[in-house]
Amino acid sequence: MSASPSPESFLRSLHVVDDPQAVARHAAESLVSRVDATRDRAARFSVALSGGSTPRLLFELLAGEFRDRLDLDRLEIFFGDERSVPPDHPDSNYRTACDLWLDRVDFPRDRLHRMEAESEDLDAAARRYQECIGERVRRGPGGLPDFDLIWLGMGEDGHTASLFPGTSALVEENRWVVGNEVPQLETHRLTLTFPVLDAASHVEFLVTGGGKAPILEQLARGEGGYPSGRVVPERGTLAWVVDRAAAARLPAND
Ligand code: 6PG
Question: Is 148 in the pocket of ligand 1 (CB under 6 A)?
Answer without folding.
Answer: no
